Amino acid sequence: MSTQKKQGSNVIAIIVMIFLFGMISFVTNLASPMGDILKFQFNVPNWMGTLGVFANFIAYAVMGYPSGNLLQKLGYKKTALIAIAIGFVGVGIQTLSGAFGSFGIYLLGAFVAGFSMCLLNTVVNPMLNTLGGGGNKGNQLIQIGGSFNSLSGTAVIVLTGILIPAIADAKISDVFPLMYAALAIFAFAFLVISRTSIPEKTREQKQASAVKSGYSALSFRHFVLGAIGIFVYVGVEVGVPNVLNKWLQNPIGDGGVGIAEAVAGSVAATYWLLMLVGRLLGAAIGSKVSAKAMLGVASVVGLTLTLAAMFAPTDVLVNLPVFKGGSELFGLAEVPVNAALLVLIGLCTSVMWGGIFNLAVEGLGKYTEKASGIFMVLVCGGGILPLLQNAIVDGTSDYLVSYWVIAAGLVYLLFYALVGSKNVNKDIPVE
């Protein structure tokens, strides 16, 4: 009876963690199309329009390590509730920025929301890995959570494109419906989690984890290289659709393609939709295929697609299914073949987070919670690498050349899968 009760409790906990995974994507992905709105509403260059994404992710660098300590001290449930409350405040501040028309207030809200996303990530990943029992099963659960994450990300990009009538005249107030939805999601999640029983470590386990030793998570080479891998990966994941969306919707005279905002947003959203497809496939095979093999294959294919997109002729067009907005809500639209190749990278990035996290924390034992906090610090790559990409665009007026940043990142991830993920510090006690 007690075993059945525990299994039922675990199922509820897993569902809650997967739900939180979706919340992370909903709020985080809202920052990318918001950058295009900021660019035109406040007449700033591409790199400044990306400051909302930067503020959201740089919060990870500030809060990442403390979040690991908080998780170890308060446990999963209390940390999650604190994160949700902070997220409500962050999105609320962003909504106020639309009412006051303030660039600075928006950046403050994005930064506060980033604190929340950092805390939630710190809770969700080790919790799902633990509930799955680590190893391939743990990776499988993270992939399932990632699938819901991708679904939320797809919805936000598509809805933003539909809500914006014309990018040159866009204002923050145009996407108020999405901000209200985010506030409602936070409020609902707080109520659900406050009434849900989340498995926690026992007092003895916490005390054992807190015992001082001459080692730390940073004593493990495969973890350090994996943390760098997360920095690179999140930058790649965010950078690919961020620059793609700008390239498609900006005027031809500015180096862009000049297609409708709803269509451009829908093409970029297809990237997140393919991440959903990839994560579902990853979840299906996650218990049979090692994280190392999955990450290695995804890196090779992603690198091939990136290079092909950079060098393919831009006058070759292909049809992609898109949401058009207006009277014809759904249909086909012609876009450069480069865009289709970049969209396909979503299939590759879909399985990378779970694979890197799984490989990096394997064998860490009592250092896992602190390791998760360090991981969150390095998530700031999602703000730094896209900022670098957009600076390259401003300097060269060439959107595709900025994808050398993506190519370099994928080379590193291939190195980590083949070489860097091996645990060479098995002599360190982890109990």
Automatic annotation (TrEMBL):
Q: Offer one Pfam family short name for this entry.
A: MFS_1
- Coiled coil, from the record: none
GO cellular component labels: plasma membrane
Chain segments annotated as transmembrane:
12-32, 44-67, 79-97, 103-128, 148-168, 174-193, 214-236, 256-281, 293-312, 339-361, 373-393, 399-419
The annotated topology with respect to the bilayer is: Multi-pass membrane protein
The subcellular location is: Cell inner membrane
Q: Where is the signal peptide?
A: none
Q: What is this protein called?
A: L-fucose-proton symporter
Please report the organism this UniProt entry assigns to the protein: bioreactor metagenome
What is the phylogenetic placement of the source species in the record? unclassified sequences, metagenomes, ecological metagenomes
Gene encoding it?
A: fucP_11
